[in-house]
Design brief:
Length: about 325
């Protein structure tokens, strides 16, 4: 409502947008960073990729990264079909050593003296795993030695910072562009694209405009981000989600279920018998089977993996009701 009061310029030239940019620079300990707001995580990731590479470049990333499996090739659309180089690793993480091997192999096979392109890592990963500050820095070091830029998909960046108990700046050492998430942690529709290497932002405003992502009433995106950052709300919300996931996973294990990945943030990948899933759904639980919907019928003891995500709004009472049904 405050953002709707009075008269201000459009397209991000308003004081509130400027204030949010300044606040993110302080938060990330990046005084020279260039900051742009968009309304979706897919836009943040795809436009970030397009800023760092083009059709002649390569994107090194985990084969199960969100930009590979969940964005309908939006990064490839915006980069005009950059080549994906897919890496493996447990819990949807890749290591600096794996990246170095992939870079060496790619240069050999493609007979290249130098590579063009970028590395993209996701923190928290799609399997709920965390990259530590040291792991991020090591990956960035390998990438930069090869002449590649580094992008971090931070749709759950708040959950990572909260879980690792580090500063935001410590978690982005060596990162060139950060997709700073808001929507998965309570905002209505806002993400920030933060150029930690500011010279890479040259021409980015034009790229946003051509892609249809320059909002005339940008102050409404800024208002969300300002409230999100105010007084550490973004970390309190993430902390609540992380705590509820730990409570949920502990209860599932106590009831005899199992988890497919370590529960490090707010996602729980639980394996339960079909009979338990049926009981939970009948009681009103809503979640995804993972990775695919199984048939609706089958043996009651058939083990089925599900993805359970706790949010900023998940309560202890909701988790306990879920666990009571499971028990």
């Amino acid at each position: 409502m405050a953002a709707n009061d009075g008269h201000v310029p459009s397209y991000g030239a308003d004081p509130l947008s400027a204030a949010v940019q300044a606040q993110l620079r302080i938060l990330l300990d990046a005084p020279q960073a260039q900051v742009f707001l968009v309304s979706t995580g897919t836009a943040a990731n795809a436009l970030s990729c397009a800023a760092l590479t083009d059709s002649e470049g390569m994107i090194f990333t985990h084969r199960h990264a969100h930009i590979v499996e969940d964005e309908k090739d939006a990064p490839l659309f915006y980069t005009r079909n950059a080549e994906l180089v897919l890496l493996d690793g447990a819990d949807n993480k890749f290591t600096a050593a794996a990246l170095k091997t992939a870079i060496t192999y790619t240069k050999h096979v493609c007979q290249l003296d130098a590579l063009r392109g970028m590395v993209s890592l996701t923190n928290v990963t799609e399997a709920g795993a965390l990259y530590s500050p040291d792991e991020v820095a090591a990956i960035a070091d390998v990438a930069h030695q090869a002449g590649l830029y580094v992008h971090m998909d931070g749709a759950r960046f708040a959950n990572a910072v909260s879980a690792l108990n580090c500063t935001p700046g410590q978690l982005i050492s060596g990162v060139d562009v950060l997709s700073f998430g808001g929507t998965k942690n309570g905002c209505l529709a806002v993400e920030a694209i933060v150029f930690l290497t500011p010279e890479l932002a040259e021409g980015f405003a034009d790229l946003m405009k051509r892609g249809g992502h320059v909002t005339s009433k940008m102050r409404y995106l800024a208002a969300q981000m300002m409230a999100y950052l105010d007084s550490g709300l973004w970390l309190r919300l993430a902390g609540q989600a992380n705590r509820m996931a730990k409570r949920l996973s502990d209860g599932i294990l106590a009831a005899g279920g199992s988890v497919a990945h370590p529960v490090q943030a707010n996602e729980v990948f639980a394996t339960l018998p079909r009979s338990a899933h049926d009981k939970l759904h009948a009681a009103g639980a809503r979640y995804y089977y993972w990775p695919d919907d199984p048939s609706r019928t089958g043996p009651a003891d058939e083990q089925i993996l599900a993805r359970l995500v706790c949010s900023w709004a998940t309560t202890s009472a909701e988790v306990d009701r879920f666990l009571a049904q499971l028990s």
